[in-house]
Design a protein that fits this description.
single chain; 158 residues; Arc Repressor Mutant, subunit A; 49% helix
C-alpha cells in the first residue's frame, strides 16, 4: 500500500500547470509555435493552414494544442467575433535564447565556450553562433536580474 501511494504522488498530473522549460514543449506544440511566430497573432485556421504546408494535421488537433499552450501560459488568446486569436508570449529569438541557455547550463556547466568547443569539434562553425560570454551568469543565485519584457516568463518557462 505504501508503494502505491508513492507511485501516485510521483506521477505528474497532465494539468499540473506550466512546463518548466521551453525545451519541455512537445514536438507538435513547438510546431504550432513555429507557425504562429511569423504571423504575430493568428487564429486556429491560420495556424492550421501554415502547418499544412509541411505536415498536415487535423484542425481539431491544432485547436487542442493551442488551447494547451494557452493553459501553460506560452500563448495568450483573445476572442474576436467567433474565433480566438493567439499570440506567443515570447518571440522565436527569445525561445531560442532560453533553449540555448538551458542547454549550456544543463550540459556544459554554464560555459558557452564549452558548447562552442563541442560544436567546433563536430565541424560546425561557431563564431557566428554564440555571443561572447557575459561576465556574470544572469540566472546565478543572488545576481539581480534587470527588468525585461521576458523577466516574468522566466518563472514559467525555465
Amino acid at each position: 500500500m505504501e508503494m502505491s501511494s508513492h507511485v501516485e504522488s510521483a506521477t505528474p498530473s497532465r494539468t499540473a500547470g506550466p512546463r518548466h522549460s521551453i525545451l519541455d514543449l512537445a514536438p507538435l506544440e513547438l510546431e504550432c509555435l513555429s507557425a504562429l511566430w511569423p504571423l504575430g497573432e493568428g487564429t486556429v485556421r491560420q495556424i492550421h493552414l501554415a502547418l499544412a504546408a509541411s505536415r498536415p494535421r487535423a484542425y481539431t488537433t491544432v485547436m487542442t494544442i493551442l488551447d494547451r499552450l494557452a493553459r501553460k501560459g506560452i500563448v495568450t488568446r483573445r476572442k474576436v467575433g467567433k474565433a480566438f486569436h493567439y499570440r506567443a508570449m515570447l518571440s522565436a529569438e527569445e525561445a531560442r535564447l532560453k533553449a540555448v541557455e538551458k542547454i549550456v547550463q544543463g550540459f556544459f556547466d554554464g560555459s558557452p565556450q564549452a558548447l562552442a568547443a563541442h560544436l567546433s569539434s563536430l565541424g560546425a562553425p561557431t563564431s557566428e553562433l554564440l555571443p561572447p560570454a557575459p561576465p556574470v551568469a544572469v540566472d546565478a543565485p543572488g545576481t539581480p536580474v534587470a527588468d525585461s519584457p521576458i523577466q516574468n516568463l522566466d518563472e514559467r518557462l525555465l
